[in-house]
Design brief:
By secondary structure, this protein is α+β, with helices and mostly antiparallel strands. It folds into two domains: 2-72, no CATH class; 86-177, no CATH class. Helices cover 34% and strands 11% of the residues. It has five helices and four strands, in the order ααββββααα. The strands form two sheets. The chain has a two-stranded antiparallel ribbon. A hairpin with a 2-residue loop joins strand 1 (46-52) and strand 2 (55-62). Helix 1 packs antiparallel against helix 2. It starts with a helix and ends in a 23-residue tail after the last helix.
Length: 178
């Protein structure tokens, strides 16, 4: 995580030092690419997209997506993002609450039809606190699933515990609130 923060800060600094100076866009792009390429040699891997004034200046993969097979990352490489979206989803929900567009006390049945009776009392707050009792995983990594299939699996599963009585991290549940 510290490395990711260092990379973000370095990229931000490099971009901001040249912001508004279009003649230096190529120079900045080269510096960022050189920096990320050097990091790739010591273990950084990922796909990076950098835009400046709406123009793509870098769209490139660094390191390997599969070291054993020597498959390099590209701009289209899929990554398992794990739990990194939770804090952004939570912040977005709280922002919507600040704008009076929803309340964390709202029950999920307000936003979804045909919620089974055992799940009708689940609130957004329960989801945010990981105390809804809903299953934690739906499908495998990179498994394609649409919203209808997702909701069907979640709503047709048994609660892992009564709402609000325990804590268990839900990985995918809050994604569909936005």
């Amino acid at each position: 995580m510290r490395h990711l923060l260092t990379i973000i800060l370095a990229l931000t600094f490099l971009l901001l030092t040249n912001y508004g100076q279009t003649q230096k866009v190529n120079e900045t792009s080269e510096k960022v690419d050189q920096y990320l390429s050097a990091l790739g040699k010591v273990g950084f891997y990922g796909s990076v997209l950098v835009e400046l004034n709406g123009e793509k200046i870098i769209s490139k993969g660094y390191g390997f997506s599969d070291v054993e097979k020597q498959i390099k990352n590209s701009p289209t490489t899929l990554f398992d993002i794990g739990s990194i979206t939770k804090q952004f989803t939570s912040a977005a929900i709280l922002k919507l609450e600040m704008q009076s567009k929803l309340s964390t006390n709202d029950k999920i049945s307000k936003y979804f039809e045909n919620v089974p009776s055992d799940k009708q009392q689940i609130t957004i707050h329960d989801l945010l606190r990981h105390q809804s009792g809903l299953i934690s995983n739906v499908g495998g990594d990179f498994e394609k699933i649409n919203e209808v299939e997702f909701l069907d699996k979640v709503f047709n599963s048994e609660l892992q515990f009564p709402v609000g009585t325990s804590f268990h991290i839900q990985i995918l549940v809050t994604v569909y609130w936005l």
